[in-house]
């Protein structure tokens, strides 16, 4: 039996510079599988840098629907889009195709769809930032607590969601029961908070300044597929035939403007994925250790695909990203790290995701996996796992 989706509009006073103080309505989807209302367990899922939470956490009705799986297991599951993503409001500057960089304009917006040629951004600044992400997550967590009568919420994040959820859990540990990070983004030596503070924005943006002179990024369907293809270490065993088309169609359903942009195919715009160009800070080796929260008051489970080059870059590259370094940086003993065979960064839509779902269910029930609360493990395509040296 499918657990029905209930969509919420959660009011939030924006802290983005472009519309600060404006009351917007954040998109939140709920699938409530609670069997005993007196013992309700709530989960909040958050998307990554580009793909919205639909279809990241909620795709179709089958084995790729993470929300549905956990709701059937008895949890009250929520998923949210940050402002500027998916079905949450997008600031007006994101409706102007000039407000991206020249390379993306040239690659994606040509032949008059919708640009006749290159143009200059009318809003020459980045759009999102860490403080606004933390504020929006906090609004939704408080909403869930009030609406469902729970004291804490388990946080689940994919990819760059870690940049928001990790620091949020540290700042509000009394709100968070546990943290599950799938393919998390972590820059060990990334931008730090303002000196002398724990989480305040640094006074100056890091170089190069060109990164912070436009508000929006764009990805086309071909670019989406190319990035996925580069992490196919197991071919058809890794990704089911037709998944690119299925996922792209679902992404376009969440963007009524972006699906009408991009080079035409058979006379119809091919569509683009629009997402904010943010500046993030504080999520680095020092930030992960602040107040000694992670791995102590908030248990942490990290899962990543063995072929994921998106969040595991070669040492010496800039920026350097490392999931292993995140595991090392978590200060407490309640931390686990699973590497999953035959999987890349798009693991939510790959065949082995069913094993990730089962891991997450065990984690939510016990904040441990089969009696383990610490360690690094390798999981094969059958879902069996063995402990590995770090």
Automatic annotation (TrEMBL):
Pfam families: Abhydrolase_1. InterPro entries: AB_hydrolase_1, AB_hydrolase_fold, AB_hydrolase_sf. Coiled coil: none annotated. It comes from the Bacteria. Residues 63-312 form the AB hydrolase-1 domain. This is AB hydrolase-1 domain-containing protein. The lineage of its organism: Bacteria, Bacillati, Actinomycetota, Actinomycetes, Kitasatosporales.
């Amino acid at each position: 039996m499918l657990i029905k989706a209930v969509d919420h509009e959660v009011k939030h006073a924006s802290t983005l510079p472009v519309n600060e103080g404006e009351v917007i309505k954040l998109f939140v989807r709920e699938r409530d599988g609670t069997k005993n209302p007196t013992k309700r367990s709530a989960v909040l899922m958050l998307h990554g840098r580009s793909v919205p939470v639909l279809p990241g956490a909620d795709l179709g009705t089958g084995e790729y629907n993470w929300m549905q799986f956990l709701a059937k297991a008895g949890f009250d599951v929520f998923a949210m889009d940050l402002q500027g993503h998916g079905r949450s409001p997008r600031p007006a500057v994101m409706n102007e195709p000039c407000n991206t960089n020249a390379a993306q304009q040239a690659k994606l917006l040509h032949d008059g769809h919708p640009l006749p040629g290159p143009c200059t951004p009318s809003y020459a600044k980045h759009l999102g930032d860490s403080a606004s992400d933390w504020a929006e997550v906090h609004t939704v967590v408080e909403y869930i607590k009030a609406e469902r009568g729970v004291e804490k919420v388990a946080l689940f994040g994919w990819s760059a969601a870690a940049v928001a959820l990790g620091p949020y859990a540290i700042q509000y540990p009394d709100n968070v029961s546990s943290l599950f990070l799938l393919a998390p983004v972590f820059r060990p030596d990334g931008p730090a908070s303002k000196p002398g503070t724990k989480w305040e924005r640094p006074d100056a943006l890091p170089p190069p300044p060109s990164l912070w002179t436009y508000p929006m990024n764009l990805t086309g369907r071909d670019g989406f597929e190319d990035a996925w293809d580069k992490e196919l270490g197991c071919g058809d065993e890794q990704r089911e035939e037709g998944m690119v088309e299925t996922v792209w169609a679902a992404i376009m359903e969440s963007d009524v403007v972006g699906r009408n942009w991009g080079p035409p195919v058979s006379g119809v715009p091919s569509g683009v994925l629009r997402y904010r160009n943010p500046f993030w800070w504080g999520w680095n080796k020092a930030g992960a250790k602040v107040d000694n929260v992670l791995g102590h008051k908030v248990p942490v489970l990290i899962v990543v695909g063995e072929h994921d080059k998106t969040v595991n870059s070669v040492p010496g590259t800039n920026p350097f990203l490392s999931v292993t370094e995140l595991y090392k940086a978590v200060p407490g003993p309640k931390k686990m790290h699973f590497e999953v065979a035959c999987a890349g960064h798009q693991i939510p839509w790959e065949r082995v995701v069913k094993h990730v779902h089962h891991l997450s269910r065990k984690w939510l029930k016990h904040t441990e996996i089969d009696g383990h609360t610490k360690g690094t493990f390798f999981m094969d395509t059958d879902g069996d796992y063995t402990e590995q040296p770090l």
